[in-house]
Automatic annotation (TrEMBL):
<dbReference type="GO" id="GO:0007155">
    <property type="term" value="P:cell adhesion"/>
</dbReference>
<keyword id="KW-0677">Repeat</keyword>
<dbReference type="GO" id="GO:0007165">
    <property type="term" value="P:signal transduction"/>
</dbReference>
<dbReference type="Pfam" id="PF01582">
    <property type="entry name" value="TIR"/>
</dbReference>
<dbReference type="Pfam" id="PF13855">
    <property type="entry name" value="LRR_8"/>
</dbReference>
<dbReference type="InterPro" id="IPR003591">
    <property type="entry name" value="Leu-rich_rpt_typical-subtyp"/>
</dbReference>
<dbReference type="InterPro" id="IPR035897">
    <property type="entry name" value="Toll_tir_struct_dom_sf"/>
</dbReference>
<dbReference type="GO" id="GO:0016020">
    <property type="term" value="C:membrane"/>
</dbReference>
<keyword id="KW-0130">Cell adhesion</keyword>
<keyword id="KW-1133">Transmembrane helix</keyword>
<keyword id="KW-0393">Immunoglobulin domain</keyword>
<dbReference type="InterPro" id="IPR032675">
    <property type="entry name" value="LRR_dom_sf"/>
</dbReference>
<keyword id="KW-0325">Glycoprotein</keyword>
<dbReference type="InterPro" id="IPR031283">
    <property type="entry name" value="AMIGO"/>
</dbReference>
<comment type="similarity">
    <text>Belongs to the immunoglobulin superfamily. AMIGO family.</text>
</comment>
<keyword id="KW-0433">Leucine-rich repeat</keyword>
<protein>
    <recommendedName>
        <fullName>TIR domain-containing protein</fullName>
    </recommendedName>
</protein>
Length: 527
């Protein structure tokens, strides 16, 4: 059985997680641990404090290294962290003061450099750290990383690097970069120049309103680009031509209004273009120069008509989806004359029609009832909203739904002795319904949003609509987290508490109705 020694400098107040090989998590503080990871026979031991050395000795390849936040924690620790600070945790505090040279050096609030890492990392998770700028120079010529995750880290700007000053071969070795749920507003020219091996770039859930036709220059290996859920309203001509091998683009959930084929000039290898729910009203007539495009998805927009030569140039198009455009009453017969290879044309949302025709208007629901679950209702709420649960929700359940005898009321009812996240997942998995109360304070809470994400992931796993959102107050659109906006856009169940008496009666009646059964989902929610 192989063994590896790992040394760190300093006394860690926070836990450090190493997910090695099969992403099996080893949770350790300073001290000696030995963990046999099933068939992999991989052992990590002798984690010791040392003032002289901070090198991970002997490890050359790690499957998954997580220095992001939140880490695994007990319920008591989670409540302590949550009570101490509502702000996003700042790794600068942990690493600058605890282990100056472990993995990252922070200088003046920014990350200076990697140091002393294994030479190859499958996934480096840096989610939820506090870092205003993503500096390309951080990653020059250091570790080979398959996937770098930096979601929800407050990144406002990408700082490019002058590659003319970079030594040959000293380029980032990252294949997949994820910067989802940050606050980027634009992508500067040559933003990621030097990322010669980058194949996948995810920029979902930012505030990007504009890009330059040189934003993606230098990304010659880029294949997949996601700009899902941003604020883009227009694009320059040949926006993506610099990324010469780009194959898949997702521009869904933007504010485009008009789709201009010239945006994609120069994207000769583009095969899939998805622009779902982006308020598109018209398509500019002009030749498409993306001659290899095979899939074009324009569903859930506001298209009124498709005229002659709308798709001129798409000789290899096989799938065209314009479903959900409920105002699309006019489609010229000549609109598809140039699309000689078309194999699939989707014009209407057949899901509702199918249910009406086959099951006679009855929704497809789960076979199990609430009585078949360990818990009939799992109610999740922020500590600051507990008063509403005690004053309103509990009396309602006692008076109108007394048959619900097995209800989880927040963290206080979680299984004692379990890790916090494990206990949360257990009640989500074993509850008929999970109801999350949303307020301005709850959407600012990292732990609370983690609970929501776990509930949605469980919905995807079961293909059942088991989650209900209840808005206790109005929340500005700009303040709504990406995942909440995504759920609302998918028409997932939600309720809004009102002040007038009649509205409140309707509100409580809807809660009763929502508890009856779990509807089957037609598709998964990207999280």
């Amino acid at each position: 059985m192989a063994s590896y020694g790992v040394q760190f400098t300093g006394k860690f107040g926070a836990h450090v997680i190493f997910s090695v090989l099969r992403k099996v998590d080893i949770e350790a503080t300073i001290g000696e641990i030995v963990q046999d990871l099933a068939a992999d026979n991989f052992v990590v031991k002798n984690i010791k404090a040392s003032k002289e050395n901070c090198d991970p000795v002997g490890i050359t390849r790690v499957k998954h290294l997580s220095i992001g936040y939140p880490l695994y924690s007990s319920a008591a620790q989670a409540r302590g962290i949550r009570g101490a600070s509502r702000r996003r945790p700042n790794l600068e505090t942990h690493f600058r003061h605890e282990c100056r040279d472990l993995c990252i050096v922070f200088v003046n609030g920014g990350m200076k450099a990697f140091g002393n890492l294994p030479t190859v990392i499958g996934t480096l998770n840096m989610n939820n750290i506090k870092l205003a700028t993503f500096d390309v120079g951080y990653f020059m010529g250091h570790v080979e990383i398959d996937r770098l995750l930096m979601d929800s880290s407050g990144i406002k700007y990408i700082h490019p690097v002058n590659t003319t000053l970079v030594q040959k071969g000293n380029v980032p070795l990252i294949k997949e970069l994820t910067l989802n749920f940050n606050i980027l507003s634009n992508i500067p020219r040559y933003a990621l120049r030097g990322f010669e091996k980058l194949q996948v770039l995810n920029l979902q859930g930012n505030r990007i309103s504009s890009i330059n036709n040189e934003s993606f220059c230098g990304l010659h290996a880029l294949v997949d680009l996601s700009l899902f859920y941003n604020k883009i309203n227009s694009l320059p001509r040949a926006s993506f031509a610099c990324a010469s091998n780009l194959t898949n683009i997702d521009l869904s959930h933007n504010n485009l209004a008009t789709l201009d084929p010239r945006w994609f000039d120069g994207s000769l290898y583009l095969r899939s273009l998805v622009i779902d729910q982006s308020a598109i009203r018209r398509i500019t007539v002009g030749p498409w120069k993306t001659t290899n495009l095979q899939t074009l998805v324009l569903k859930n927009n506001d298209l009124h008509s498709l005229s002659h030569n709308t798709f001129n140039g798409l000789a290899n198009l096989k799938t065209l989806d314009v479903s959900g455009n409920f105002n699309l009453f006019q489609m010229s017969k000549a609109a598809l004359t140039s699309v000689g290879s078309l194999e699939s044309l989707v014009m209407t949302d057949l899901r509702q029609f199918t249910m009406k025709a086959i099951v006679g208007y009855h929704e497809i629901t789960e076979d199990r009832t609430a009585e078949d679950y360990e818990f009939q209702l799992n109610l999740m709420f922020h500590d600051g909203d507990e008063w509403w649960v005690n004053d309103c929700m509990k009396p309602f359940l006692e008076q109108r739904m007394p048959h619900l005898g097995r209800v989880i009321f927040g963290d206080a009812d979680l299984h004692p002795g379990s890790f916090y996240l494990n206990a949360i997942y257990d009640v989500i998995e074993n509850s008929h319904k999970t109801m999350l109360l949303l307020s301005n304070r709850s959407v600012d809470d990292t732990w609370y949003m983690t609970k929501l994400r776990m509930a949605v992931e469980h919905m995807n796993d079961t293909k059942l609509e088991k989650v209900i959102l209840i808005f206790l107050e109005d929340i500005d659109d700009d303040h709504l987290p990406y995942l909440v906006r995504l759920l609302l856009s998918r028409n997932e169940p939600y309720l809004l508490l009102t002040e007038d008496e009649e509205g409140q009666e309707v509100f409580w009646a809807k809660i009763q109705k929502s508890m009856r059964s779990n509807r089957q989902m037609n598709n998964v929610i990207p999280v």
